[in-house]
Amino acid sequence: MRPRWRKVLSDLIDNKARTILVVFSIAVGVFAIGVIAGTYVIISEDMGVSYSANNPSNIEIRMDDFDQDLLNTIRKFDGIKGAEARRVFTIRLRPLGETKWTSVDVIAIEDFQENEINLLEPVSGATEPGKNEILLERDVLDELEVSSGEYLEVQLRDDTIKEIMVAGIVRDSSTGAIDFLSPPLAYITTDSLKFFDQPKDYNRLFATVEVGQDDDEQIRSVLADLSEKIEKNNYTIGRTFISKTHEHPLEPTINAVLGILMALGVLIVFLSSALIANTLNALLNQHLRHIGVMKLIGGRDQIIFRMYLVLLLAFGFLALLIAIPAGGQGAYALAEYIADQMGFSLLGYRIVPLSLIIQVAVGILVPLVAGFIPVIKGSKVTVQEALDGDQASAADDDDSADREGGSRFERFQVRSVQVLADRGIRIPRQMLISLRNTFRQRGRLLLTLITLTMGGAIFISVFNVRVTLHDYVEDIGNYFLADVTLDFERPYRLEEIKQYAHQDPRVTAVEGWSYASAEILFPDGNTAENISILAPPADSNLVSPLMVDGHWIQPGDIKKLTISEGIYDYYPDLKAGDMIPLKINGKEEYWEVVGVFKFIGLEGVLGYAPYEYISREQNLANRSFSYRIVTEKHDRVYQQVMAKELDAYFRDQGFHVQEATPGLSTMDSASESLDILIAFLLIMALLTATVGSMGLAGTMSMNVMDRTREIGIMRAIGATDREIIRMVIGEGMLIGLLSFGLGMILAVPFTYLLSAIVSNAVFATPIAVVFTPMGYYIWLGLVIILSSLASVLPARNAARLTIREVLAYE
Amino acid sequence: MADRNSPFIELRGVVKDYHSKAGAFQALKGIDLDIYPGEFLGVVGKSGAGKSTLLNMLTGVDKLTAGEVRVYTNGSSINLANLSENELALWRGRTMGVVYQSFQLLPMLNLVQNVMMAMDMSGLYHPRKSKERALELLDLVELEAHAFKYPSQISGGQQQRVAIARALANDPPLIVADEPTGSLDSVTADHIFNLFQRFLQSDRTIVMVTHDQGLMPRFSRYVNIVDGELVENGREL
Ligand SMILES: Nc1ncnc2c1ncn2[C@@H]1O[C@H](COP(=O)(O)OP(=O)(O)O)[C@@H](O)[C@H]1O
Ligand SMILES: [Mg+2]
């Protein structure tokens, strides 16, 4: 081997600690990019494919009981590709020996083999229930604990209780995805309907359209024609839903996730570039003398440049060896986590070409680009500078203007120390040396600061966004202030329920609410979206809305409502006071929107109108199906106890209770998609913290390694190991804290950027950005611990070297 | 080789100023010096007199402030100031071997590789040939037994001999040495000196810098340098 390549090889092999540090600092960045790019591609490819693989219905119609004749008619209807009819009814389940009931919607399917719409995926146990057996959707397991083969108690409408075997657990990514208000699902064959005391008729229709399966307009127009046909046959339609075949209903959340991934990916490319540049700069500094020697014996710039280029490529290559497999695994794991949370499955582990290309490009190009300036500078250094000059100053202050600046800075230091001393503030000598060392090499300091500042700022802002979202979820609680919601099968008088409820001294308030289901129409009469209109008493204290526009409902309102900001999807220019067409109780009417409030946009459109008006329209004045109850305490456990006890109490008194739900659990299901985002942001925070910490540790160690010789000299003139270590720690901490200060500032725009991405995807209007001290504290702790650790280890090594070794140090 | 009476290297009015925080400092105050082919020239002076600075002007390792350094090779003359840093490096690698007090070997290469590196950089020898030659040169400095050791495994005197072998690698007409015996004991120093004197016989020019007055008799000629000026200039032998 030619000596020059021998040298490059030795540079790689001999100083293992340094090689590992450089390779690692590249690998960490490339790994993170691999994870992000891989996840991005896997999620965006698989989400639609996997969702559509279960052939989700484009149209769902909830209606009166109907029979095979109507189904046959619908199957032949123009524009309909396939249709399935089912019976859906609500029951309550609980494990044997438990007292808490869970409501589920049971779907009766004629033939699991021949079913072609809203296919189920197996999770465990059987994929098809036998007669008088039940399959559970896996979401049920969030509520109760049971496994395949075990028995559950079922409570039917008439309160009779039976036992039924769980044949298996399945996943239904299609049926439940549309409506967050509906309970989790279970499946039986039509043979078992008798067991549940249900008629054989259908009450729900699922259909796919022939063309335009991903075109809202097309689906909507087929639905309009079909509805007309059904109504002509004298059936009443309850609610209708449409969805696209290839678009997962949680797509906005996923887009937010992908948006964050993208933004973080870009930031991390910058972060790792700064990291790599810094590391290589320090490395080249250590190599100055070698460069001097080679030039002395005839080495030209090009040769030296080429040698270091090969060294950089080798670093990049080694980093890729680690980062590509690790990044691929990481990407798949993260994608799998997201997919699991969102309720779809991935197509299987694979190498993502795009991610591979990006990783190779970053792993090779970034070291080249980042190392280019240090390498050019190194190969241009004169022999004199390289051999004789102070190694560092030769590389850093190569023109006299720079030196001027340095001395000006030193004068500033001297003067500020003077000023402090005049006021009786004395800076310890150790700290002065640390200070001087820190600022002596501004080029390196700058790079170190950029690296650490970026890492810190990203970490802090991810944390901020996480808390912003979390706070927002808490705010959503303002819509769910009741501790228990008590739903009855038939309406009862307000006075009666209040009287009974107040028998329990723990109940502090009772409100009867109404509910109306309606459709928002476009001006041309087509349905835009379903809307659930909740009707609390206008002066209710149980809703504390976040108004975006206009005002809240008032007692005297007639045909007026407030509406959640999801309305902007259909009426982007809507303002308070505008009239919109609604189809309510079968009639088309114009209602005034008195206000718009903030809610979770992707959970559909929600409205509020006063109880006083809605109940009168429904001929239910002073009566209600649904009651909101406030109790003494408001924590989760207390609410659960109260729900159970009120349920039992009212049943005992002969009331037909449908369900008693604790308030916070309602909120939980409403904000589920945000919880996914929040959990995801935590993972991202950990990832950036890892990259940032690696950067911090790597940079600090490089800085100290770079000064081995200087440390040796200090020892030679009598500095004790402890003094040296204290000096180095002081310096590391100073840099760490400085970067922390800058990171705090940089975190502000980053936080706004990430929040904007999230709120753009999930909400119609921007959400209030919240800054939490948490991210700052954690990062501060990391900075202090890591910067002192990362400085002290190499410093101890340096202090251990004998003076002869140090002065001979390359 | 060339005519022994016409100079190989001419220094004319060489001035070197250093600029530092303390202000400007003139390390060389107008040096005129002719170096003739085949001579063993000693530059003698106290520490800080400007010896190394003068040598750096000669090797082109540092830029001069004023004056001219001219080198005559193959009938044509080169003004060092006209060469770029790059051209200088190649020219230096082929024309002169440089030996420093602090050896300046590359620690990660063994002795043969250190010597080969000089040939690799100059590109004058085929890689396969260069190993053979490096071993010959190590034989010449009596280190063939240590050829595959690393610099840290041998003594200072031995390291300096490797540096000399490296200086000879490209068979240059000129050897320049800056206090090559400065950090060696007198017996080892003597050994190094004998080596240099052997090279004279192969028609080489040697310029050596030292602060040791006692070495004066061993040069074929010496000059004294005091505070950046040549004060005496004698030809002996
Ligand atoms: N890079 C430099 N910057 C400033 N002054 C220098 C520099 N190098 C040498 N000097 C000064 O120039 C004078 C001559 O130095 P040098 O040639 O190294 O002396 P010698 O080799 O004779 O001991 C000394 O006073 C020294 O301090
Ligand atoms: Mg000297």
Q: Which terms summarize this structure?
A:
heterodimer, A: 810 residues, alpha+beta, 4 domains, 6-stranded mixed barrel, 22 helices, 53% helix, elongated, B: 237 residues, alpha/beta, Rossmann fold, 6-stranded mixed sheet, 6 helices, 10 strands, binds adenosine-5'-diphosphate, binds magnesium ion
Give your account of this protein's structure.
The complex is a heterodimer of chains A (810) and B (237). By secondary structure, chain A is α+β, with helices and mostly antiparallel strands. Chain A folds into four domains: 1-45 and 250-396, no CATH class; 56-242, no CATH class; 436-478 and 667-810, no CATH class; 481-662, no CATH class. Chain A is 53% helix and 19% strand. Chain A contains 22 helices and 20 strands. In chain A, the strands form two sheets. Chain A has a six-stranded mixed beta barrel. In chain A, strands 12-13-18-15-17-16 form a six-stranded mixed β-barrel. In chain A, strand 12 (507-521) and strand 13 form a beta hairpin. In chain A, helix 12 crosses helix 20. Chain B has a single domain, classed as P-loop containing nucleotide triphosphate hydrolases (Rossmann fold). In chain B, the strands form two sheets. Chain B has a six-stranded mixed beta sheet, sandwiched between helices. A four-stranded antiparallel beta sheet of chain B has the order 2-1-4-5, with helices on one face. Chain B has helices spanning 51-59, 85-95, 111-122, 127-140, 156-167, 186-200, and strands at 9-20, 23-35, 40-44, 66-73, 76-79, 96-100, 174-178, 205-210, 221-226, 229-235. The chains are: A alpha+beta (810), B alpha/beta (237). The structure holds adenosine-5'-diphosphate and magnesium ion. The site of magnesium ion has 2 residues of chain B, from helix 1.
Give the helices and strands, then pairings.
The complex is a heterodimer of chains A (810) and B (237).
Chain A: H1 3-14, H2 16-53, E1 59-66, H3 68-76, E2 80-95, E3 102-109, E4 121-125, E5 133-137, E6 151-155, E7 161-171, E8 185-189, E9 202-209, H4 216-232, E10 237-242, H5 251-286, H6 288-296, H7 301-342, H8 353-380, H9 383-387, H10 391-396, H11 400-422, H12 429-440, H13 442-476, E11 484-493, H14 494-501, E12 507-521, E13 527-535, E14 547-550, E15 560-564, E16 579-584, E17 587-597, E18 605-608, H15 611-617, E19 623-631, H16 636-652, E20 657-662, H17 663-670, H18 672-705, H19 708-716, H20 721-762, H21 773-800, H22 803-807
Parallel strand pairs in A: 3-8, 5-7, 13-18, 15-17
Antiparallel strand pairs in A: 1-9, 1-10, 2-3, 2-6, 2-9, 4-7, 5-8, 6-7, 11-19, 11-20, 12-13, 12-16, 12-19, 14-17, 15-18, 16-17
Helix pairs in contact in A: 1-7, 2-5, 2-7, 2-8, 2-18, 5-8, 5-13, 5-18, 5-20, 7-8, 12-20, 13-18, 13-20, 13-21, 18-21, 19-21, 20-21
Chain B: E1 9-20, E2 23-35, E3 40-44, H1 51-59, E4 66-73, E5 76-79, H2 85-95, E6 96-100, H3 111-122, H4 127-140, H5 156-167, E7 174-178, H6 186-200, E8 205-210, E9 221-226, E10 229-235
Helix pairs in contact in B: 2-3, 3-4, 3-5, 4-5
Bound molecules: adenosine-5'-diphosphate and magnesium ion (MG).
